[in-house]
Every structure is written in C-alpha cells, then in structure tokens.
Specification:
By secondary structure, the protein is α/β, with parallel strands linked by helices. 34% of the residues lie in helices and 20% in strands.
Length: 145
C-alpha cells in the first residue's frame, strides 16, 4: 500500500471528527505546520512563539480542557478568536493578521470538552489529524507534523 493510500485510509477510519469541519474553510497553502495542544495556558505563552514563526507556517492550536469551569483555557480561546475568522464547526481559521495564520480548535467549551483521562494525548491527536488532512489535501507542503 502506498503511503498516500495509507494516510487516506487512516483519515477515513481513525481520524477525529474535527477533520470534517475543514471542508467548510477556505485554507491557503503553507510550507509547514505546527500543532500546539494548549490546556490552561495563559495567552501570553503562545504569543511568545509568534515572532519566531515564518510566513509559510500554519499553527494548529487545540485549546482543550476536561473542566467546564476552566476559565484560563476559555480566556485563551476568547483571545485567539477575537479577530474575524472563518468558522466551521468548532474550528476557527484566522489568516492575514499581524500574527501567524492559525487554525484554532475549540475543545474547551461545554459540549466540546475532552474526556478527563484522554487530556493532552487526545488534543495532540486532534491537531495531528487536522494537520494530516491538510497535508493530504495539498494545503500543507511538508509531510512533517
């Protein structure tokens, strides 16, 4: 089986449902991507990464929590999605601003919480599945996540 066929088969069988929301977004083309699972992170922690990002980078940030009262993660989501964005499901796509282009996955608001025992592992998987779907569609050139 070719690597491309194996990737598509993985996406069909095992990927998290967030990949289907990508169909509702008009994603630009990027050289590479970076997946960041963010749980109870102050917004400033992510902002520190931005000056080091090159224009060909798409950041996929999975803001996640298992606790519906987690105000820190909710504040990060609110700060990240303050600018106008394309939205599909619980994905927000922000591009063309003063910061790097972002896909923000909301897994911190009630109804979208990550099960407590799955935590950062599931957040990483969601981000990696979104990245792989974008790689397979040609939106991200590099096969490295």
């Amino acid at each position: 089986m070719s690597p491309e066929k194996a990737q598509l088969q993985y996406l069909e069988r095992y990927a998290e449902p967030e990949i289907h929301a990508l169909e509702g977004l008009d994603i630009r083309r990027y050289a590479h991507c970076l997946v960041i699972p963010a749980h109870r992170e102050p917004p400033e922690s992510l902002i520190q990464v931005w000056p080091h990002a090159d224009p060909g980078l798409l950041m996929i940030v999975v803001v996640n929590s298992w606790d519906s009262t987690d105000r820190i993660s909710q504040l990060m989501l609110q700060n990240l999605t303050r600018e106008p964005a394309q939205q599909s499901g619980h994905l927000h796509y922000i591009h063309g601003s003063a910061r790097p282009d972002l896909i923000i996955v909301d897994r911190c608001l009630p109804g979208r919480l990550i099960p407590r025992r799955q935590g950062v592992g599931l957040a990483r998987k969601i981000g990696a599945d979104v990245a792989l779907a974008l790689i397979c569609s040609g939106a991200i050139e590099s096969p490295l996540i």
